[in-house]
Amino acid sequence: MELLPRSPGEFGSARYWDRFFRQRGQRPFEWYGAFPELCPVLHKYVRPRDKVLVVGCGNSELSEQMYDLGMCEDIVNIDISNAVIRQMQERSENKRPKMSYLLMDMLQMDFPDSHFQVVLDKGTLDAILTDEKEATLAKVDKMFAEICRVLQVGGRYLCVSLAQAHVLKKTVEYFSQEGWVVRIHQVASSGDKQQFALPVFVYVMTKFRKIPGSAPQILEICPEEQDKPMRVESAEQLVAAVKDRQHYALLRSQLSRTPCGEQVSLDLCDKESGRPRYTLHVVDSPSVKPSRDSHFAIFIIPQGRETEWLFGTEEGRRQLASSTGFGRLLTVALHREQQYEGMAGIQAELSGKVMELAPPSLPSWQQVPFLSVGGDIGMRTVRHRDTSPLSGEYVVEDVKGDGTSYFRRLIFLRNRNVVQSEARLLAPAPLPGQKKRRKDKKKPSPAEPLAAIDKSYLCCEHHKAMVAGLCLLGGPDPLPGTPLAVLVVGLGGGSLPLFVHNYFSQAHVSVVEIDPSMLEVATRWFGFSQGDRLQVHVSDGLDYVAKLAAEVSALPPAAPAQYDAIMFDVDSKDLTVGMSCPPPAFVEKPFLEKVKTILKPEGVFILNLVCRDAWLKESVLATLREVFPLLYARRIEGEVNEILFCQPSLEGQRNPTELEARARALEGALRQPGRPWDSSYALADMLQALKIL
Q1: Residue spans with biased composition (Basic residues) (predicted)?
Q2: Quick one: how far is CA 25 from the chain centroid?
Q3: 56 close to 84: Cβ distance less than 8 angstroms
Q4: Do residues 367 and 394 make contact, with C-beta atoms less than 8 angstroms apart?
Q5: Is 376 within a domain?
């Protein structure tokens, strides 16, 4: 401990370094980056005939090893510590006649201009640039200016560094402004236990003649696993790319030592495009006692199923890990923008990388199994991709579900892990590589439907609960033949209003959708169509309800309100709020009063609430109770969704037995001969878990 400086400023003190090397003696001191690790990078930029200057050489063996292996012999080493210079001269004077050690301050060197082809710095810049104080930055500017002066045009400044953000930023900005090419290499780890958890980098700055005016910056990074450099647009992007690699190294270090208490996630990106290719979640199961062969496994989530509860939630992944019986499970989600060559291709691609995340208990001889559902990687076909000014970029895709079922989904890419709308396909659309069943070879036109939509099926559990909520309507049983006026705010793929329209033969359904693109998507891709009893109004739901409320308020007091049921299934475009459905303005008291105005006294207002902020959720419930005296809630198991059923009067309250009877009556009436009905529509079960708030 006595070798450490009292303050970072002492790293620039000759007196400190004299004391350091006298106390350390002849033992070489390597800050970081042993020669075998640095050698592949140095070989690229140091030629045998180059004249090399090593600044702040200390008693590192780097110069000696370069000389002894024939990489280069004309090497000049300088340092401000007289003690270490004498020590190094004694070590090399009889063995390395062409290499010299000089006592010299690199901030004021005695060499002529353009004297060297290479300047090599191993940790010296990191030792000087300890903070961003004015005096420190001025010292670094002098160091850089001297390096620029003594290097020839075409020469390289090689700086071995841990790449702290302020060090990297200063270096990149200085040399890129001078018109130099800046390239960052990540040094491949030897795999041995390192002194530092952070990876080592080599900055390679190549000197070019400075061109007057604003020449384009050339900034590149070379990850350790590839030789081909990746070009970036700005110093900020370069710093961010290095930071990502540092975070990954710290994560590897953490996971290699102890089990991870919390689930850790990271993206592995495509080398060419830089886009995410795999999303990994590391799940440790402390309760699982690994047997001889159950320390670690990789689970490939089939394409299109990453949003399911088991794979898409923390609790689901924890249950999955526990059920597999492995101490650590690494789940792998595949991205829709990428192409994959089957399970064998994925295994070959991931094998090296995933082993970096193995638990410390994994024996070196053990093979790590790759698991999946049914042994395949699933299927996903993007049918349509577009961008809406209101909803942003979105895709319509067909995926294979569990078993033989196929589904069509609408995904907003700003929240790619949430299925916005989903419909079951009656027959799977042809997937890439599959032959069409039709005899003709003509390709379908973009307007041609690729598969029939099962309009009888509600994929979303919260939609089933919303339909079940119609049992809360006052008056006679809500049989399919009873006239109903229903307002639905939020179209999506249109499955909810379409189901109400198709199964309640006397229902008149009005749908309000703010985004005209969604009406086009629902019509073209989800089998939605308008008619006499089903109309879509392209409008802001807030404005539409406010207009209706004003019209109702202008009528005589005895005039009835318009709607038996009002359903809100509208997502929020603002992802910074802890409530993704509905937007906050839809649950403010003045607006809810307008909703109540257009709702019949015996009617029901049904709201899909998705709120992860506990305080915000309680605030929403309190506001709803102020407006609607009777409030029921139905949690959707395994999801954040909670369906709220609001009624304007306590007179509408029904006991559980009555609700169950009404639900069974409705379900029986909907199960008409010749009309498809899914067995999962247990309306009575949907209402059993209701609780009054």
Answers
A1: 434-444
A2: 50
A3: no
A4: no
A5: no
